[in-house]
Specification:
The structure is a homodimer of 384-residue chains. Chain A has 384 residues and is an alpha+beta fold. Chain A is built from 11 helices and 14 strands. In chain A, α3 packs across α5 and α6 crosses α7. The longest helix of chain A is centred in the N-terminal third of the chain and has 29 residues. Chain A is globular and about 80 Å long. At the A-B interface, α7 and α8 of A face α7 and α8 of B.
Chain lengths: 384, 384
C-alpha cells in the first residue's frame, strides 16, 4: 500500500468515526427530556459559590481587566447586592484589587443571559434533563430595559433582584413542589408554533408557563398581595421564559459534551469581549475570538455609538422556517466548509456600566473560533 | 333624457349611496374599541330573561319542532339547570308543550357558540365598545368535549355550569372591578400574530387574557383553593378566549347595523338547522337557508354519520394571510357577484342530544341567504 493510500485510509476511517460520534451527539440532543423542577438559592445548586466572592459570568473565561463596560457594571451591582462592597465605587475598587473570583457559568452547569451574573444568594431555576439525569441552572429573568443582565446596577435594579430572591423565587419553589415538574419539551414545541424563537420573542412560552405555574402558586400562596404582584410580574414580562429556555438549552447540550471524535458544537457564548465555542470531541477547551457588533434597532435616544459589542449565551437556535424542524447541531466542519457562521439574534447593552439595554439586533459568531477549533480537532485526530 | 338614461342615472346614484354607506360601515368596524369590563348574571344584562322561561339560542329564530338534536339536548339541560324541569325527560316534555320561550341571542345584544344557550342565571361576560358606547354579552366558555354548547347535558355538564356561575364568574367580576377593563383590540392583534384565528385556535389570546386576569383575581380571592381551580380551568382551556372573541365581534358589529343603503353583512350565524344573515341596510330581517354539513376531522370513535349540520355564531373572520390585514366586511353584492360564500371553521356536534362535540371542520355559508338578501335590497332601493 502506498503512503498516499494509507493516508487516505486513515482519513476515511476518521471520517467514519466522526460520523458515528456526531450521530450519537444528535441523538443525545433529540432524546433529551428537559423539565423545570425547582428554584433554589444558587449556593445550593453550586456549592463552589459559597466562598471567595465568586461571580459566575456569561461567555468564555475573562478577567476584570478585559471585561466590557456593561459586564463591569453588572459585577459592581452584584457585589453590592451580595454585600461584598458598600457601594458601586467600592465594588469597582475591589474588582481592580482582584477581590472577586470570576468564573464562567458554563464551568458550573449554569447559563445566564448577556452579562449572566450568578452569585451565591440569587435564586436559580433548575432544569432536569430526565433522560440523562443532568441538571442545568439559570437565574430568573428581570424584564427589559435597566436590568443587571445589560449592565444596569442602580438601586431599582438591586431592589428587583431582592424581590426575585425573597418573594418570587420562594413562591416558585413551593409551587413546583406541588407537581412533578413542568415538562418543557412540549411547551417549547407549542411556543415555537406560536412564533417564539427562544431569545427575542418568548411571549408564547411565557404565557404557556404562566398557565402551568399560576394555579400552583395560588395553592401555596400565603399572601395574595405578593401573589398578585408575582403573577403581574410574570404576566407583564414577555421575556420571562428566556432564562428557562436557556437552562433548557444547557440541560440538553451538556450530555453532548465529551463524545470522542464528535465535531458538534456544545456551547456558543459571549461575554461582551470574547465569543467562545466548545466542541464535543475537544473536551473543556474554549475557542475564542473578539465578539462582533450587532446590527440592531435601538431604543429611542440611543444609537450604534452607545452599543457594546455582543455578549451573552446562546445555545438554542430557532429559524423562521415555516414548520420545518429546528436545525439541530452545529458541526464545526460544516461551518468552516461553507464559510458561514451561525447568526444570533440578541439584545444590545449600552457600552457604559450601569445603563442597561439600548436595543436589539442580529450578530454573527466569529469565524476564528470555528477555524481554530477545526485545526485543534485535526491535530488531535492526527490528520493535520 | 331617455328612459334608459334616467334608469342608468338612478342606478349610478344608488351605487354612490351604497359606496358611502359601506365606507361608513367599514369605518365603524375599524374604529370600534372593545373592552372586557364585567361579568354579570345574564338577567342583569338582559332583563327580558327574568320571566317566561326564556331561552336565547344561537342563530336565526327557530321553534322547538325544527331544532336539531344537540340544540334540543342543550335546551333540556339548561331547563334542568334553571330549575324549570325536574330532569331531562321532563324538560323534553315541557319543550314539546311550548313551555319555553325561544329567542335568538342576536335579538338581545348577545352571542353564544354552537347551541348558544343563554338563560337568566348564567354569568355573561360584558364587552363594551367604548367608541359607540354599546355592550355585547357572551357566556363563559366551558372547554372541549362534553359541553352544553355542543348539546351535552348530563350531571357533569350542569355541575360545570354551576361552578362557572358560583365560583369563576364572581371572581372574574371582582377582578375586573380592580381595573379599567381589559382592552381587547391590541390583545387580539397580538394573538393573531401568534397564530390564533378566534374560533378553533384561541390558545394565544387565552394566555394573554390570563396574564391580565390572574393578578387581579389573586388580589380579590378569598379562597385560594378556588382561585387555584379557577386559574387551572382558564389555563387548561385553550378555547377560553373564544367567547370573549365572540362578544368582541358582536360589540364591534352592532354599531354597523341600520346604516341606510349599506350592503355589508352585520351577522352570520347558525342554529344547526338554519343559517341566517343580517345586512346593515335591511334592518332586522333575517335571510336564512338550510345549514350545510361541515367537512371535518372527527374525534376517535366518531364519523360523519354522527355529525349534526353546522350551527353557532361567527362574526369575526381570520385568514391565513401572512401578516396581511384581516379582511373586513362582507358585502352581499360581492358574495353574489363572485359566487363564493364565506368559509367558516367550526366545531362539530353529535347529531343526537346529550353527547357533545365530536370533531371540528370547515363549512360554507349557504348562497341562498345572500341571493335573497340582495334581491330584498334591490327591491328596497327600487332597482329590482
Amino acid at each position: 500500500m502506498s503512503v498516499q493510500n494509507a493516508e487516505q485510509q486513515t482519513v476515511n476511517s476518521i471520517a467514519g468515526l466522526i460520523e458515528q460520534a456526531n450521530t450519537k451527539a444528535i441523538e443525545t440532543m433529540l432524546t433529551g427530556d428537559p423539565v423545570l423542577v425547582d428554584v433554589v438559592p444558587a449556593v445550593e445548586a453550586i456549592p463552589e459559590l459559597a466562598s471567595g466572592n465568586t461571580i459566575l459570568h456569561a461567555g468564555p473565561p475573562i478577567e476584570w481587566q478585559r471585561m466590557c463596560g456593561p459586564m463591569r457594571g453588572a459585577v459592581a451591582g452584584i457585589a453590592v447586592f451580595e454585600g461584598w462592597a458598600d457601594n458601586l465605587d467600592d465594588a469597582f475598587k475591589k474588582a481592580e484589587a482582584g477581590e472577586f473570583n470570576f468564573q464562567p457559568n458554563h464551568h458550573y452547569r449554569a447559563v445566564g443571559p448577556m452579562t449572566g451574573m450568578t452569585t451565591k444568594s440569587q435564586p436559580l431555576m433548575v432544569v432536569h434533563n430526565r433522560t440523562f439525569d443532568n441538571y442545568a441552572y439559570c437565574a430568573i429573568n428581570e424584564g427589559l430595559g435597566k436590568v443587571m443582565r445589560f449592565g444596569g446596577n442602580d438601586a431599582g435594579v438591586l431592589k428587583r433582584l431582592a424581590w426575585l430572591r425573597d418573594t418570587l423565587a420562594p413562591m416558585m419553589t413551593d409551587a413546583l413542589a406541588q407537581c412533578d415538574g413542568i415538562g418543557l419539551k412540549n411547551l417549547i414545541a407549542r411556543g415555537l408554533t406560536m412564533g417564539d424563537e427562544m431569545h427575542q420573542r418568548n411571549v408564547a412560552c411565557s404565557g404557556l408557563l404562566l398557565r402551568e405555574l399560576a394555579p400552583l402558586m395560588a395553592l401555596v400562596s400565603k399572601d395574595n398581595a405578593s401573589l398578585s404582584e408575582a403573577l403581574k410580574f410574570m404576566g407583564g414580562n414577555d421575556q420571562f421564559f428566556l432564562n428557562v429556555g436557556m437552562a433548557t438549552g444547557k440541560a440538553l447540550m451538556d450530555p453532548v459534551r465529551d463524545i470522542e471524535h464528535s465535531t458538534i458544537v456544545t456551547a456558543m457564548c459571549r461575554n461582551g469581549t470574547d465569543f467562545g465555542i466548545r466542541v464535543s470531541g475537544l473536551g473543556d477547551q474554549w475557542f475564542t475570538a473578539p465578539v462582533e457588533m450587532p446590527e440592531g434597532l435601538y431604543f429611542a435616544g440611543f444609537t450604534e455609538a452607545d452599543a457594546n459589542p455582543d455578549m451573552g449565551n446562546a445555545e438554542w437556535s430557532i429559524p423562521g422556517m415555516d414548520y420545518l424542524g429546528v436545525p439541530t447541531g452545529i458541526d464545526i466542519r460544516k461551518v468552516v466548509e461553507v464559510g458561514m457562521t451561525p447568526t444570533i439574534n440578541t439584545g444590545i447593552a449600552h457600552k457604559e456600566p450601569g445603563i442597561g439595554q439600548v436595543g436589539a439586533g442580529v450578530v454573527r459568531a466569529p469565524m476564528k473560533c470555528f477555524n481554530d477549533a477545526l485545526r485543534a480537532f485535526a491535530m488531535q485526530e492526527g490528520v493535520a
